Automatic annotation (TrEMBL):
Key word Ligase present: yes
Residues annotated as binding Zn(2+): 570, 574, 672, 676
Catalytic function, reaction form: tRNA(Ala) + L-alanine + ATP = L-alanyl-tRNA(Ala) + AMP + diphosphate
InterPro entries per the UniProt record, alphabetical: aa-tRNA-synth_II/BPL/LPL, Ala-tRNA-lgiase_IIc, Ala-tRNA-ligase_IIc_anticod-bd, Ala-tRNA-synth_IIc_core, Ala-tRNA-synth_IIc_N, Ala-tRNA_ligase, Ala_tRNA_ligase_euk/bac, DHHA1_dom
UniProt record similarity statement: Belongs to the class-II aminoacyl-tRNA synthetase family.
Name used for this protein in its record: Alanine--tRNA ligase
Domain Alanyl-transfer RNA synthetases family profile: 1-715
Cofactor(s) this protein requires: Zn(2+)
Keywords: Aminoacyl-tRNA synthetase, ATP-binding, Coiled coil, Cytoplasm, Ligase, Metal-binding, Nucleotide-binding, Protein biosynthesis, RNA-binding, tRNA-binding, Zinc
Cofactor note: Binds 1 zinc ion per subunit.
Main location: cytoplasm
Subcellular localization(s) per the UniProt record: Cytoplasm
Length: 878
């Protein structure tokens, strides 16, 4: 049975049981401060389990893209070394929100696996929670009794808290679970050792394929459990493992989920992957297999993250994606011999394979390919630079062990992988101080953990029920009651309080727009709201202190100056998006934005730099729409399909409901939950201040509106006045600047000519200072020239013979520079290399450099080190 058919069969089965099929949520979570990525099937439904929102159906089924590479669930370092761990995986799920429970969920699981898929019942084992006295949770007798209808008791495992009690985090909904495991070993292996003893023992062929979580508790901040108001079912089934069972193989990588990708890697590299059925393979083949598994696994995670709007970067979720991709590049570089970008070529295979169920990968194929290709090229350059740096580390190491702190510096500062460092050191006859590296790594992790440590109290509920609403589209001031409060203590921000209001006018951060600020005013006091965010469908107002009487009536007042400035930038963003698609083409799509009171930042897909002429056209387009005084047409709740049919723009990577809010200014129409001006004229004016690249195929424009434009032109006028003053107030400022540039160019040419002449005059003088060392004409000297003059002098002296070794030092304006010239004949005969010479001598001036074997330069910071550098130069020819 093909993987696509297995996926369909699952969804259709639960649809027949009254479940609504919903699409996968994006793999990247943009508006959940507690998670970077969807790491389980239930992540997108948290607000329903918590009772903060009502689902469109009490029964839902889906297949969810998941990513586990950070935090509590981190499988990254296992990937490739075994056959069943993955970074990205699919979780097939069926969900009950306060509807059915164990007596339906368990029989349906058995029916699907044994009747629809017809898996061998003799290969299946089940588990139930054995109970935990300390938690005051009893043995799951109900699940046990239900399972006895389908399997014998010797196939029911009693699982402990670690294996059979599922929690989404340190706090929140949780409950006992009942798993189904399958034994895929041969009949002989099964006869020798019972599968019962191998369940949850990390055996690669005895694996969990189904997990029914019975959500009935809430884990509080103090660790205690309380009953949820309703009982829920959260089913997760590992799609890749199920495919392994259905396709009669013993490795996820031998299923058709991965084989097309593996075949492409084989085609590119000329290497072969051996399936899990092949035993007794060589160590070399095992390394190849691991590397290929790493590549085909990681490309899925990276490609879908980019398609969902997360670009690789140096911070947050973007850093995680970059790290995954770099791990794949590194394995290809070391074990597959790939010295050029190649992983990007797998995106087309992935799009063909998964585009039917996940159309985003097909739609974003070109962008994903370009971004991965650019990231590959960049990291391969980093690896090349790292190899040179590692050469320097080895050259300066006394003995045969390289300090762990040096290796950590390569890893932490330059991104050079530690396992590659260790591999190269072994090849060169060196060892790595692994304990020193581990200590440096642990210290960094401790610092990072301490900086991000957060403790969150339980909610104190002041008003029961789902009473919270947002009124901020119509009001910036409203009478409110506090419905719940909690304290949050973090290393970064200190103690803050989160307040939830019954009818708040405060807009929470989302969709690129920052959260509102303002005040909460009662008869006796004023509390400052310093930020507003959304979490699990609750709007959280952040304060540094709580009101004295939290049960009092308050007036919530939004800072309208900040709100107005933000709304101008947000509305201008929509108009600019329209302008870019009109002027550059409809391939332009939003890939990220930031809207705050000061400015707007807009990332978009485009294949080349936006020209100055095009930027001016965009600016003119937006300002024309401002002049047209277009009224805001806002539709609060419109069916999403109707909005799309009417031409509304939807953004990839955003999660939309069945009904959406549509914002229209003239011909610009987008799905958007943010705050906007009532009329385009309120924006006043629009000015682009910068344009540049963010990643391959992604550009970024930063712009200002309103008062920001006024301040911009005022500062430009002030700057122009300063220039006029410096030029003695000429009648024609531009003409005066051009004249100054022309005079400067003439003087520069004259100076260059003088320096060339000076170098020629010094040639005879220095020729007399050459000394013969081991048959080599040697000179190391500091000269009063600039770097270009030193180069000219070196080449002039080089014409005197074919056995010259020359090091010249300069210190123009206190900046030291070393230039090394070696006759080409010496390079060949004595294996000398000017690049290696300047890298070594450059350490004395606190710098480095490189170049060709016969001529290279190194710049530095410490001119006082020049004499020592020159004194050491003779060591290369002795």
């Amino acid at each position: 049975m093909k993987s696509q058919d297995i996926r369909k069969a699952y969804l259709q089965f639960f649809e027949s049981k009254g479940h609504l099929i919903v699409p996968s949520a994006p793999i990247v979570l943009k508006d959940d401060p507690t998670l970077m990525f969807n790491n389980s099937g239930m992540a997108q439904f948290k607000e329903y389990f918590l009772g903060n929102a009502t689902p469109k159906s009490n029964r839902i089924t889906d297949t969810q893209k998941c990513l586990r590479v950070s935090g509590k669930h981190n499988d990254l370092e296992d990937v490739g070394f075994d056959t069943y761990h993955h970074t990205m995986f699919e979780m097939l799920g069926n969900w009950s929100f306060g509807d059915y429970f164990k007596k339906e969920a368990i029989p349906w699981a058995w029916e699907f696996l044994t009747e629809v898929l017809q898996l061998d019942k003799d290969r299946l084992y089940v588990s139930v929670f054995e109970g935990n006295e300390a938690e005051n949770v009893s043995f799951d007798q109900e699940a046990f009794d239900i399972w006895k209808q389908f399997v014998s008791e010797d196939r029911i495992i009693l699982g402990n808290k670690k294996d059979n009690f599922w929690e989404m985090g340190d706090q929140g909904p949780c409950g006992p679970c009942s798993e189904i495991h399958i034994d895929l070993r041969t009949d002989a292996e099964r006869a020798a050792i019972s599968g019962f003893s191998l369940v949850n023992a990390d055996h690669p062929q005895v694996v969990e394929i189904w997990n029914n979580v019975f959500m009935e508790f809430n884990r509080k901040a103090d660790g205690s459990l309380e009953k949820l108001p309703a009982q829920h079912v959260d089913t997760g089934m590992g799609f890749e493992r199920l495919c392994m069972a259905m396709q009669n193989v013993t490795s996820n990588y031998d299923t058709d989920v991965f084989t097309p990708l593996i075949e492409k890697v084989e085609q590119i590299t000329g290497l072969k992957y051996t399936s899990n059925e092949v035993k007794n393979i060589s160590e070399e083949q095992n390394k190849t297999n691991i590397a290929i598994r790493v590549v085909v696994d990681h490309v899925r995670a990276v490609a879908f993250a980019i398609a969902d709007g997360q670009l690789p970067s140096n911070t947050g979720a973007g850093y995680v994606i970059r790290r995954i991709l770099r791990r794949a590049i590194r394995y290809g570089f070391t074990f597959l011999g790939t010295k050029e970008p190649f992983i990007n070529q797998l995106v087309a295979v992935l799009a063909d394979q998964m585009g039917e169920f996940f159309p985003e990968i097909k739609k974003q194929q070109a962008l994903v390919t370009n971004v991965i290709r650019e990231e590959e090229a960049s990291f391969l350059r980093t690896l090349d630079q790292g190899l040179q740096l590692l050469d320097n580390v080895i050259a300066t190491t006394e003995g045969k062990e390289v300090a762990g702190t040096k290796a950590f510096e390569l890893y932490d500062t330059f991104g050079f992988p530690i396992d590659l460092t260790a591999l190269i050191l072994r090849e060169r006859g060196f060892s790595l101080d692994e304990a020193g590296f581990d200590k440096a790594m642990q210290e960094q992790k401790s610092r990072s953990r301490a900086a991000s440590e957060v403790s969150t109290d339980d909610w104190k509920i002041l008003v029961d029920g789902n009473v919270e609403i947002f009124v901020g589209y119509d009001q910036t001031e409203n009478e409110v009651k506090i419905t719940r409060i909690r304290k949050v203590d973090s290393k970064k921000d200190g103690v803050l309080y989160q307040i939830v209001l019954d009818a708040t006018p405060f807009y929470p951060e989302g969709g690129g727009q920052v959260g509102d600020k303002g005040t909460l005013v009662s008869a006796n006091e004023t509390i400052e709201i310093i930020d507003t965010k959304k979490e699990n469908n609750l709007i959280l107002h952040f304060t540094k202190k709580l009101p004295e009487n939290v049960n009092a009536s308050f007036v919530a007042k939004v800072n309208t100056d900040l709100r107005a400035a933000t709304s101008k930038n947000h509305s201008a963003t929509h108009l600019m998006h329209q302008a870019l698609r009109s002027i550059l083409g409809t391939h332009v799509e939003q890939k990220g934005s930031l809207v705050n009171p000061k400015n707007l930042r807009f990332d978009f897909s485009h294949f080349s730099k936006v020209t100055d002429e095009e930027l001016q056209q965009v600016e003119d387009f937006v300002n024309a729409r401002i002049q047209e005084q277009l009224p805001l047409i806002e539709r609060r709740s419109i069916p999403i399909q109707q909005a799309l049919d009417e031409g509304a723009m939807a953004l990839f990577g955003e999660k939309y409901g069945d009904n959406v809010r549509a914002i229209k200014f003239g011909d610009s129409m987008e799905l958007c939950g943010g705050i906007h001006v009532n009329n385009s004229a309120d924006i006043w004016s629009f000015k682009i201040v910068s344009e540049g690249a963010v990643a391959a195929g992604i550009r970024r424009i930063e712009a200002i509106t309103g008062d920001g434009v006024r301040q911009f032109f005022a500062s430009q006028e002030e700057l122009l006045d300063e220039i006029k003053t410096a030029l003695k107030n000429p009648q024609d400022t531009v003409k005066a600047v051009v004249s100054l540039q022309e005079d400067n160019a003439k003087l520069k040419k004259q100076l260059e000519a003088l320096l060339k002449e000076k170098a020629k005059n010094m040639k005879a003088e220095l020729a007399n200072e050459l000394q013969e060392v081991n048959g080599v004409q040697f000179l190391a000297k500091q000269v009063d020239l600039n770097a270009e003059g030193a180069k000219d002098l070196a080449y002039e002296l080089g014409n005197l013979g074919n056995n010259l070794f020359l090091v010249l030092a300069t210190a123009e304006e206190g900046k030291p520079m070393l230039s090394c010239y070696i006759s080409k004949e010496l390079v060949a005969e004595k294996n000398l290399n000017a690049g290696q010479v300047v890298r070594e001598l450059g350490k004395f001036i606190q710098g480095g450099g490189g170049g060709q074997p016969f001529f290279a330069t190194a710049g530095g910071k410490n001119a006082a080190g020049i004499p020592e550098a020159l004194s050491k130069a003779i060591d290369f020819v002795k």
